[in-house]
Design brief:
Blueprint: E1 11-15, H1 19-25, H2 30-50, E2 55-62, H3 70-86, H4 88-92, E3 96-100, H5 108-121, E4 128-135, H6 137-153, H7 164-169, E5 181-184, E6 203-206, H8 216-228
Parallel strand pairs: 1-2, 1-5, 2-4, 3-4, 5-6
Helix pairs in contact: 1-2, 2-3
Length: 236
Amino acid sequence: MPEKKGAEGLSIGIIMDGNGRWAKQRGLPRTAGHKVGADVFDDIALYAKDIGVRALTFFAFSTENWQRPKDEVKAIMDLFGQALKRIEKYRKEDNQVVFLGDRTPLLPEYQKRMADIEAKTAHRTGMILNIAINYGGREELVRAAQQLAQEAADGKIKPSDIDNACIEKHLYTSGQPMPDFILRTSGEHRISNFMLWQSAYSEFIFVDTLWPDFTPAHFDAAVAEYHRRDRRYGGL
């Protein structure tokens, strides 16, 4: 049988970038770009599920994003709250929804909704939909190290027991497949503290398209580009 070249079974991470620039180009406030970007998030999440993606991780808000102007942060958090209300459609799509990151700075109402969504979708067998909110790759590794150090202090493990599998067990993505490729929109060529451990052998695909202009056709093009890559994992 010929090798499949579609998106079926792939794990993909997306850094959604360019909302502010999209708005500025149109003489609109940055918050307008975030609103359109939220609609694109919905479209791509549903499209990815339809074409068989196994896991899709969106970088929605980083630990560094708190440094942005307060009105912009509030607008992003308000959009996140609205997204939580819309998440019912993802349950109907058989998606398992997981939130990556430190949720303690978020509104208690949001934290409760997030926990409820995760509990109600945990048994789903369709696409894993990860939403990285107040997430940082370095912070994720520090958290894993702290948890392992506590286990060692409690006598549950020895330091010599710690290996790759132990660390991965303590990541937010525990039990999930590593991303086959990481996509970033807007022309920036960096990963900005996103999935540092998980992306060790991921392909990186950078596109000039701003996130509010991103379409399923762009998604298909990224998948096609991924399949043109030669992944050797350190071998020949």
